Amino acid sequence: MNHRPDIHDRLAASLKAARRSKGLSLDAVAKLSGVSRSMVSQIERGESSPTISTLWNLTQALHVDFAGLWEGRTAPGIEVMRAGAAPLIEGRGNGVRIRILSPPEEAGAHEVYDLDLSAGGALVSDPHGPGCQEQLTVLEGTLLVSSGGESERLGPGDTARYAADRPHEIRAEGGAARAILVVKNG
Hints:
9-stranded antiparallel β-sheet; 186 residues; Jelly Rolls; 434 Repressor (Amino-terminal Domain); single chain; elongated
């Protein structure tokens, strides 16, 4: 009788759970990891014993803990970055302090920033890559956001979505302001 080791079942269940929790299809995981769709499917069904290299590619694509897969667990459910630990960029632009809220592995894909602008402070940006979009939500104060030749004035609670693949700017008007900026590269 040929019994599969329990580790195959735990690994299969862990990878499948990680993929589903991220809302990814088999095709999406294959594209992100470089592992064929059929191989991902076989691994998830426990029909294949993947190499360490294949597992590494899958865990990196799914952003899960490599060691935790063997124990039947994925990365902790709540990852916390304390306020004082967030990377800070000061002096970029005039009167702007930027706290980076997104994880480093998302740089260039999906970035989240906490912007603190002094009165008259401005974040002036060159065009990002093709298809890049930004979403700006004002928490305090008044901001003027410009993209291309258009501008909009925003107050607390207002959100603007705009193309960031052209020159764009965020400027505090009439006093200090604070906002959350989400950058999604195309």
